[in-house]
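Appendix B.2, paired examples.
Example (i):
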Amino acid sequence: MVPFAAAVLAVAAMLPGAAQAATCPESLDFELRPLTAEEPVRLCDAHRDQVLLVVNTASKCGFVGQFEGLEALDAEFQERGFRVVGFPSGDFLNQEYEDEEQIDDFCRSNYGVQFPMYEKVNASRRHAAPGTLYHHLGNAAGEFPRWNFHKYLIGRDGEVLASFGTRVRPDDPSIRAAIRSAL
């Protein structure tokens, strides 16, 4: 009976999705909906083996000009397996539109954003519920966003490598060096 059970487990491990489920890092084991899409995607499937810069964005924030730098980073390093991933949030003075179509239109029309944007989330320590992406990221990095445009660098293995506050712009040498090192 034991050899039969081992054979069943071996076959199950070869089924599509079995290896992916087993290797999904905790920091990417979340289902979130791409902005304006109907169905959620699992982040580890959508961004497998990529280095990610995860950013909480806000369309009405004074730091909104960082979209240009984020888009430039994404375009520059994308071919090497890097992506910027945006998560709109209204946690800080409600500086994000309610309507996701409006968020999408604003980002693309005003800043040419092509990097993946996902549904609105709660990013602050106060609002990020246990079991959510930003609760995990904040705990893993040892700091939660204190404002919009906080950035977390996640390695290909799903480990949170660095955390950059709002005032650290996308073109800052420290972010660029960390990305290069992770690639």
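Example (ii):
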Amino acid sequence: MASINGIAHIQLSVSNMERSIPFYEKLLHSLEMVTLFNSPQFFYCIGRRTGVAISPIEPEFKDQPYRQRRAGLHHLCFRAKSREDVDAIYKTALELSAKIIRAPREDTWAPGYYSVLFEDPDGIRIEANFVPGKGHLA
């Protein structure tokens, strides 16, 4: 049996790099991530045990908007260290004029689950959550 240490990176395809790079740069830098690559074809930040990259969609897909329920990514969720971190991420989302789907609140996914949900410029949903203790692993 193999053991994993988290997700090394996630790469998202975006429709407009000029619009998405500033969004992800501000968001990811607010999460204490640093930029490794920043070009019109690839933007990549890393921090702790997490990497997030964006790259442009293929031209033949430019008229096909992101759909959450198609095959592929449904949403991505950053694990915060505290409720205050979730609140800070919400503030950054507001500064980015992101579409807020759900302001910070408790939910029933796990005991003490506290999260915010918003969208990037393409409508890809981004969540940040905090679960106290070991959550479901307790």
